[in-house]
Amino acid sequence: MRFVFLLLFFIHFAVKAQDTVYARTIIKQLTSKKCFGRGYLKNGLDEAKKIILKELKQTKAIPYFENNSYLQPFTQSVNVFKTKCNVTLNNKILKLGVDFIPSPDCPTVIGKFNLTQKDSLTYFSNSNNISVVLNLRKKLTYSVSNKQGLVAEIDLNKEHFKEIPNNIELNIHSSVLPNFLSNNIVCKIKGTSFTDSLIVFSAHYDHLGGIGKSVYFPGANDNASGVSFLLNLIKYYSLNPPEYTTVFIFFAGEEAGLLGSKHFVEHQKQHLSKIKFLINLDLLGTGNEGIMVVNGSVFEKEFNLLTQINSSNNYLNAIKKRGKAANSDHYWFTEAGVPAFFVYTLGGVQAYHDVFDIEKTLPLTEYVDVFKLITSFVSLL
Ligand SMILES: [Zn+2]
Q1: Could you tell me if 314 and 196 lie in one domain?
Q2: Ligand 1 centroid distance, CA of 344 (Å)
Q3: How remote is the CA of residue 225 from the centroid of ligand 1, in Å?
Q4: CB crowding 275-313: b at 16 or more within 10 Å, else e
């Protein structure tokens, strides 16, 4: 007990301010227009993949797969808005991403429609063989759909439009890409003592992509922050070789329904029992209100270790726990019986799944403390 206590208290790590400097250079690249929201238009996901692979080449991480590849390809279908996505309301042109967004499954719709009020937050039109629905929202939140619906739904930011909606003109072109190619990126660093037992870190590098020719979702917090964290971990373990072989997975397809992690779990079944513990990292850009640990109430022993390290070192204000949740890539591992935590930071910026999730306003408040906490935790598992 005393021994553990001393370890908890005296382990020091070479974690410095330059880790957040490095994090910012990565987050800037991943949120640039070139990556176009790391999704399904303009080769955005592929550009992000190139950035990650380029960084990996400068570390001691080696390809995970037996064919000496970092990549695990899979295909998915996705509804995209390649060209026009224009909306005019009461003859006023609305700004895409700021005043309105289409629902991710919106079909192609061109025409002008008179609106009828359904309730205080919904207007609709059923004319011209297509149903149009206008939802008044406090905040616009986008996601990804693998198919088109039958209704053209538009979300309007009600803070930006105070008039009663009378008529709406839509010029929206969408199409389903049936076989979009995505890649998980997986690498490992060999353990110094235990090579048959694995520690796994994961973070998804995809985001929502873009809509039309110029609007995209940068996803700085979600999850360029987690990708930078994984790359920082790889740099760290390249200099400080881990006892256990450590695997790092950059998942694709998370925003489209945890597709990359599902694919990995389904195709690596024979190796899952080797995983001693998995930590999934998503939304690591804040932390002034601490962190949330999904599965914290499932793996109590590990959760107690985490909180012990935290209170001995005064890292974070709070470590909160919750039970199982299908809210990120740890989920399929949990379902397959792999012990796992999903860690995300709490507090700070409110931008989420919108065009405002940008690098400039991402504070990285507790980035270094979370890093110290997690590396310390893993070393004591
Ligand atoms: Zn995410």
Answers
A1: yes
A2: 9
A3: 10
A4: bbbbbbbbbbbbbebbbbbbbbebbeebbebbbebbebb
**Ligand 1 centre distance from Cα of residue 223 (Å):** 5
- pLDDT for res 16: 58
Residues found in the chain: 381
Task: From 173, 192, 216, give the residue that closes a domain.
Answer: 173
pLDDT-derived band at 18 (thresholds 50, 70, 90) equals low
Which pLDDT value is given to residue 127?
A: 77
User: In terms of domains, do 362 and 326 share one?
Assistant: yes
Is the CB of residue 17 less than 8 Å from the CB of residue 368? yes
| Residue 232: domain span | 2-77+178-379
Domain shared by 260 and 205, yes or no: yes
What would the pLDDT profile of 49-107 be if each residue is shown by its tens digit? 999 999 999 999 999 999 999 999 999 999 999 998 999 999 999 999 999 999 999 99
Residue ending a domain, among 152, 173, 194, is 173
For residue 221, the CA-to-ligand 1 centroid distance in Å is 8
Residue 180 binned pLDDT confidence (cut-offs 50, 70, 90): very high
CATH of the domain at 369: 3.40.630.10
**Furthest C-alpha separation in the chain:** 76
How far is the centre of ligand 1, averaged over its atoms, from the C-alpha of 48 (Å)? 15
Distance 164 CA to ligand 1 centre (A): 35
